[in-house]
Amino acid sequence: MRLLGIEKIRDGKYLKGYELSYENKAGKVKKFEIISRNELKSPADLGQKISGTSIVAFHDDKMLLLKEFRLGVNREIYNLCAGMLEEGESIGECIARELYEETGLSVKRIISILPPSFSAVGFSDVKTYIAFVEAEGSFAYHTSDNEQIEANFYTRQEVYELLQTKEFSSRAQMAAYLFAAGADPHNLPELVG
Predict the structure, then answer these.
(1) Would you list the DSSP string of the chain?
(2) Which pLDDT belongs to residue 193?
(3) Is residue 187 packed enough to be buried (19+ CB in 10 Å), middle (13-18) or exposed (0-12)?
């Protein structure tokens, strides 16, 4: 497989559409569509810029999950607190801002930040951090009118029950499964990205 070129086919406010031309392993030239949050000028730009973070937050041996309505699937799902890096913002500043905006909570301590990973490699080059934090404070909502979010802390047993009966984003489902299975968030190895 060899990537040959890239052409922008849609320029949205938050997402841009691109058509990639590539040579498959049989030597035939094919097309493939992707979306990106970034301005891409050449194939070398793919997957280079980090877009944001997902936040796995804990408080008093409970895990933070957001129940939010997501337009892309037309339903409420359980998700992690997450958001996009703003221009000039550090990852720590982004984590604190997004946690506050979506829940009203503040960061007590950053436990670990994993190196950036790809969120949806089947159709996008979006690359984000995953941060593990201890949160503190009280719930309050500072989201826009375009977001419907209900945040709550859940015990391991409550998370286990949600996993059996509710729908999740994939990252939230994985983090929730590990938490319900007994992973100790206070004993995570530090892998700062």
Answers:
(1) -EEEEEEEEEE-SS-EEEEEEEE-TTS-EEEEEEEESS---SGGGTT-S--EEEEEEEETTEEEEEEEEETTTTEEEEE-EEEEPPTT--HHHHHHHHHHHHHS-EEEEEEEEEEEEES-TTTB--EEEEEEEEEES-------TT--EEEEEE-HHHHHHHHHHS-B-HHHHHHHHHHHTT--GGGPPP---
(2) 46
(3) exposed
Among residues 105, 106, 102, 107, the alpha carbon closest in space to that of 144 is found at: 102
- What letters, b where the CB count within 10 A reaches 16 and e where it falls short, cover 36-52? bbbebeeeeebbebbbb
Assigned token pair, 100: 């506050």
Predicted TM-score (pTM) of the model is: 0.91
pLDDT at 190: 61
- Tell me which residues of the chain have a pLDDT lower than 50: 192-193
Dist. CA 2–CA 18, nearest whole Å? 17
Identify the pLDDT of residue 146: 85
Residue 83: both structure tokens together: 């958001």
